[in-house]
Task: inverse folding
């Protein structure tokens, strides 16, 4: 029986040639699940996101290192090998590593790797079982395939900014790189699906995932609403287009959230608030509340200002009405429930002034093969010699030729 103590993907090798965020997100997820992820970086500079700061990790003298917080967020459980991809021996080395790998991740511009003999069709000749995942801004086909893709560009083109933010404000992006992250999630699902298919056929396959495709897909109910009635959704601030009341509400001492998802919860809210809105036919059902939103919301806002946030939390939780504080990041990450569920992950990191670094925890809870945090995000080329010797390559010779560092 295979020992899966380090995760369900123990024994799988991932050649991670991706950069920025979407690709590294996939590599980190696979690494958290136990795969051996070999991160390929440019000698010296490494992944572009290493320089995307401040903040940076501080060394023992209080100076900035080359590791930014942005880089840390998607690169744990990886080993870094610094390879010059422009060097013929570097290209040959990567082809050799791919020949012995299960999965390859890349997010180069369309055609870049083919010129170096590192495209799927070339590599599959030596490794028919290779699962090769290409992540780009616009995909391998189509009129925009040649364009570079970045999260903000994709959010702007993909419609999400048109439905995010205040109705009277400017178009607003989501506060994190959500297009990158969601593309990473879809890519991970695709990789795991391809692994399952390989168990049946023995064959790998090429996976083509585009940021714009993913962005359009996760427009979910908003996108489907447009397809249903041809009405273009607009920005509604924190309110929901088809569930009312659902959003941010002001108490006497600040803001809190209400997520009233059905008529029973609305009736419970009205009872807790001492209001008769639930008996008014204009508001008795969610469909009626959506139609009569403009009449309902002033009454809701007046009602919620009658108590403090703490008072609302107490009375609404007791009544079974979904509500919560609107936390900043400090409060969210350090909430007692979040901490109990593993929101913070501390790993030894001798290069920092603290001797450790922290990243956000993986939300997956597996009963038999739990997530493991084996390696902190690596420095550039930290594992070049270790990995090459382990795989049977002459690290000294490759260094002398300038192919690796």
Result:
């Amino acid at each position: 029986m295979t020992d899966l103590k380090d995760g369900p993907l123990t024994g799988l090798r991932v050649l991670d040639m991706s950069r920025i965020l979407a690709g590294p997100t996939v590599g980190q997820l696979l690494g958290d699940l136990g795969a051996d992820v070999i991160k390929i970086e440019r000698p010296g500079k490494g992944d572009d996101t290493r320089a995307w700061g401040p903040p940076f990790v501080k060394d023992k003298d209080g100076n900035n290192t080359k590791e930014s917080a942005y880089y840390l967020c998607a690169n744990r459980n990886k080993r870094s090998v610094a390879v010059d991809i422009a060097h013929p021996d570097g290209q040959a080395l990567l082809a050799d590593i791919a020949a012995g790998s299960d999965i390859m991740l890349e997010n180069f511009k369309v055609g870049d790797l083919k010129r170096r003999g590192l495209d799927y069709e070339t590599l599959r000749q030596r490794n028919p079982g290779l699962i090769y995942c290409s992540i780009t801004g616009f995909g391998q086909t189509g009129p925009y395939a040649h364009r570079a893709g970045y999260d903000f560009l994709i959010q702007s083109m993909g419609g999400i900014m048109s439905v995010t933010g205040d109705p009277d404000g400017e178009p607003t992006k989501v506060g994190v790189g959500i297009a990158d992250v969601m593309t990473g999630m879809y890519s991970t699902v695709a990789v795991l699906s391809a692994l399952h298919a390989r168990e049946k056929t023995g064959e790998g396959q090429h996976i083509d995932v585009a940021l714009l495709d993913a962005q359009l897909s996760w427009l979910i109910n908003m996108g489907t609403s447009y397809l249903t009635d041809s009405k273009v959704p607009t920005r509604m601030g924190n309110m929901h287009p088809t569930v009312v009341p659902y959003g941010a509400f002001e108490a006497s001492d600040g803001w809190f959230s209400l997520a009233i998802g059905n008529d029973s919860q609305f009736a419970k809210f009205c009872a807790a608030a001492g209001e008769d809105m639930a008996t008014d036919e204009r508001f008795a059902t969610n469909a009626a509340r959506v139609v009569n939103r403009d009449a309902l919301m002033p009454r809701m806002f007046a009602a919620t200002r009658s108590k403090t946030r703490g008072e609302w939390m107490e009375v609404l939780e007791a009544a079974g009405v979904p509500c919560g504080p609107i936390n900043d990041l400090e409060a969210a990450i350090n909430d007692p429930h979040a901490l109990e569920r593993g929101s913070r992950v501390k790993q030894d990191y001798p290069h920092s002034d603290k001797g450790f670094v922290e990243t956000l925890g993986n939300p997956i809870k597996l009963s038999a093969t739990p997530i493991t945090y084996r390696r902190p995000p690596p420095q550039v080329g930290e594992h070049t010699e270790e990995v090459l010797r382990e795989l049977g390559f002459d690290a000294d010779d490759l260094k002398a030729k300038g192919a690796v560092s």
